[in-house]
Amino acid sequence: FFTLQVLCRYQHIWNINLRFRPAFLGGIMQATELFLKGNKPPAMLPKRAEYLLKDIKRMAKYYQVPVQISEGGFQHILGTSSLGAMRFITAIDMTEPRYLEPLSREFWLRFWSQHEDISQPENILAVARQAGLSSELAQNLLEMISSPAVKNRLKETTEEAIKYGAFGMPAVVAHFNGEPHLFFGSDRLELLGSVIGEKWLGPVPS
């Protein structure tokens, strides 16, 4: 959520063409576990989870992003499937990509700020309405998420992320001077700017 918000703030400040590429985190974790022994979400490690809880609150204030998390919040996060939501976002990417940014932001808001179960169809439709989609379009997209075309597209973008070296999320790939550069984590945006020759103006640039 931090990375999404900050990159959106910089997309008209830096000389970049920002493109969202929906990928399934579960698939990335499963694939890279073969190569990275014990590649588990940080929240599954007790001491790391304890630290993350404090760190996320600090980052929410620093990045000015409305993330709210409390004790036991990681269990909610790990226990909620994002596959349906990612397929829904993939379907919008295939049909009406202009909605990709507001839809992605609204899913994050619902999940990280309002703690809603984004795997439920009624909540997916509520997200779509809030992002400006018509009821007809939202319903059509919901029907598309079980189609082979959408499933295969999400699988392809997930495999592409792995090909670039992704082992978790957020993963940002900057194509610069004919070469891809992978950055992992929301705390690498300043380094991203340095690599592409752009100035970091803080998390909330004027």
Quick rundown:
This protein is mainly alpha-helical and 206 residues long. It has one domain (1-196): Glutaredoxin (3-Layer(aba) Sandwich), CATH 3.40.30.10. The protein has helices at 2-10, 25-32, 46-63, 73-78, 83-95, 100-113, 121-130, 135-144, 148-163, 189-195, and strands spanning 171-176, 179-184.
Secondary structure layout:
Layout: H1 2-10, H2 25-32, H3 46-63, H4 73-78, H5 83-95, H6 100-113, H7 121-130, H8 135-144, H9 148-163, E1 171-176, E2 179-184, H10 189-195
Antiparallel strand pairs: 1-2
Helix pairs in contact: 2-9, 5-6, 5-9, 6-7, 7-8
Description:
With 206 residues, the protein is mainly alpha-helical. It has one domain (1-196): Glutaredoxin. 54% of the residues lie in helices and 6% in strands. The chain has helices at 2-10, 25-32, 46-63, 73-78, 83-95, 100-113, 121-130, 135-144, 148-163, 189-195; strands at 171-176, 179-184. Strands 1-2 form a two-stranded antiparallel ribbon. Strand 1 and strand 2 (179-184) form a beta hairpin.
